[in-house]
Amino acid sequence: MASNTYDAIVVGSGISGGWAAKELTEKGLKVLMLERGQNIEHVKDYINAHKESWDYPHRGLATQDMKEIYPALSRDYPLNEMTLGMWANEQESPYIEKERFDWYRAYQMGGRSLLWGRQSYRLNPEDFMANGKEGIAVDWPIRYEDLSPWYDYVEKYAGISGTREGLSVLPDGHFMPPIPLNAVEKDVAARVKKAFGGSRHFIHSRSANITQGINDIRVGCQFRNKCWLGCPFGGYFSTQSSTLPAAMATGNLTVRPFSIVKEIKYDKDKKRATGVEIIDAETNETYEFNSKIVFVNASAFNSAWLLMNSATDVWEGGLGSSSGELGHNVMDHHFRVGASASVEGYEDSYYFGRRPAGFYVPRFRNWDGDKRDYVRGFGYQGSASRAGWRKDIAELGLGSNLKDAISEPGDWTIGMTAFGEMLPHHDNRIFLDKNKKDKWGLPVLTMDVKIRENEYKMRKDMQKDAVEMFEAAGLKNVQGYDVDYAPGMGIHEMGTARMGRDPKSSVLNKHNQVWDAPNVFVTDGAAMTSASCVNPSLTYMAMTARAADFAVDELKKGNL
Amino acid sequence: MNRRDLLKFITAATGVAFVGGKALAYENLPVVPLSDTGFSKEDVAFFNELGEVIIPRTDTPGAKDADVGSCMAVLVADCYHPTMQKTFKDGLVTLKKRAEKEYGKDFLLLSAEQKMELLSALDEEAKAYNAKKGIYGDVAMSNPNAGAPWDEELVAPHYFSLIKQLVLFSFFTSQVGATKVLRYVAIPTKYEDIPYKKGDRAWAT
Q1: What NCBIfam families does its record include (chain B) (predicted)?
Q2: Residue B141 lies in a domain
Q3: B24 and B60 within one domain
């Protein structure tokens, strides 16, 4: 059926899927973007975006019933009344935990681009070489220089606020003015600089919240700190605010929500994918769509899941499994460890507005001659603020004294949390469970991922160094913490279809093509060969734009 | 809407079967009617009385002005773990009995001073009780939705800590509390340092 044929199919509509759709349509391809969940229209469907705490029956809290439906999500902060409905229903889409894995999935138009943390950093040149140098996993098939122009490209379009710092560990990019640091943070930054002689840096975070208007849709951040409700001001990068409008404007994009891509159709004679088969999530009908190329952007685990379910008549483990690495080498960023402290003085200082981001401390371990008993490193994210009504009030008793005391801001405190690199380990894997099925009769994933010795050693420094920095900055009541981490909590799943130089040890080549099906591109977290310690989404954007450019070139040359 | 219906509603709101294709993501649950909470109007009035002792009207509105009682009823019914529900409900009975025993009157008939005296004593007892149970930190600061349905060994703090927590949370997340007692600007448009002088109110969030 002619109407079922496109130049390209993009599976998924999140950060990388949105970029794939934008790039491919702008280059003239007719593109079908498939989204397994419902449509979410920019502004119109951000139904809670203007609600306040008192507008919610439970004031924003998760109820016991919500926890029943979302048992995994309820383990940490993401489950709440404000974003209820933005997360995959765990009863309909279960998974199995051989080891605990907290999997935060957003099955809807825009995916997690609506719900992301927006911290946006470039990997550094060393990140691309560390595996090769240290003999860990496999070498990246690309170098920083391959991606650098594409970082430039996506930063300019996405809009990243930040400051140029000239640090080799955290390459500069194209930035809008930063989200300001407050008086206390500026002071701590100066004290850290003095105490560490420039070997540690306390800088503005780099965030995909725009501090300058771009167009009618992207008016700019209003400092409401309600990003996760969908921003009617287009204040941050999301599919809806950024890539989707561009793709739609070309007239080349068709979007089909409620489309669960079940498998990639594979022609074993031509060694090419021919399209995809989907299940309509509402009607359970199956449909086939054909295309010259397929971009797989379903998020790291679901992209691997889709490959595992495809071409199983050729390879039992699915498309890309000939390497023996499909579904393996799962990475996340381990965190929930750091320090907090109180800040004396600054009683005459306060702030106006609610920031969507704070400060950042780039990696300094195993860098610039430093050598630890573990490899790689970590960065910190944090902020300083004055205590609000939730400050400790046990001693204040009841009545007007209590009311007055907690109605005024309390002392300044500062806190920071480390985000550490997790090594790719072959035994950290996800695989299909053929016995358990989801609502649509599809096999579900089993998670078998643990953090290991390198991460445990690193965590000691992640806490100790935070304490050391705050103490060196002269802060008081410095308290280190490690509140435990379970894989998945970082919401940075990576590595399940890694890039490499050899089809025997990697799923994707240096252009994100599946070795066994060069017209299938995987450009989300699945492609990551190592994790770095920085937030990864900006890298997915750059990788996707690069792969789309290559794909269209190859199509023109008749190579795909 | 009872709990079962609510559960169904949430499932629908988060699933795929939409009536008329209307997007329900981000959508609020409907206001919970009092009849679904298992509490009565009298209960709510009683909660408001307790609230007013903890956060009284001064030159700014107090707990009754914010109707913390209605919010407390919903939070206890929907957000509370069964262990906390039991502690809270048993606690209310204990508190009423204690008023009868110590003052020979229903709590509601006590003078303002007597109410404050009784609740202050309970506040002190709660601190000691929590410390003895190994519950550290200020319970009143936490969100009133601790524990999940499958947590079997949840340890409840003293019931008065629950009351205080519910009052503070309900009050400061209410429109009255957030905008008339604290400060709130819906659309700040910027972030910047500002001077602070003693007496200036804190931001609600």
Answers
A1: TAT_signal_seq
A2: yes
A3: no
* Residues from chain B contacting residue A55 (CB–CB below 8 Å): 28
User: Which amino acid, residue B65?
Assistant: D
Query: Structure pTM?
Result: 0.94
Residue in the structure block whose two tokens are 């949430």: B10
- The C-alpha atoms of residue A325 and residue B126 are separated, in whole angstroms, by 56
The residues, ordered by sequence, that sit 6+ positions from B203 with a Cβ below 8 Å of its Cβ are: A354, A388, A409, B182, B183, B184
All domains in chain A, ordered by first residue: 2-119+214-332+426-450+490-556 (3.50.50.60), 163-204+334-420+452-482 (no CATH)
Q: Closest residue of B to A387, CA-based?
A: B202
Q: Is A350 on the interface with B (CB under 8 A)?
A: yes
In sequence order, the β-bridge partners of residue A418 are: A380
- Whether residue A398 and residue B120 make contact (CB cut-off 8 A), yes or no, is yes
A387-413 pLDDT, tens digit per residue, is 999 887 767 889 999 999 999 999 999
Residue B105 located in a structural domain: yes
DSSP letter (8 states) at residue A110:
T
Handedness of CA A444, A450, A451, A454 (dihedral sign): negative
How many domains does chain B divide into? 2
Distance CA B145, CA B84 (A): 9
**Partner-chain contact B79 A407, CB within 8 Å:** no
* Residue found under tokens 């019931």: B159
Token pair, residue A300, equals: 């790291």
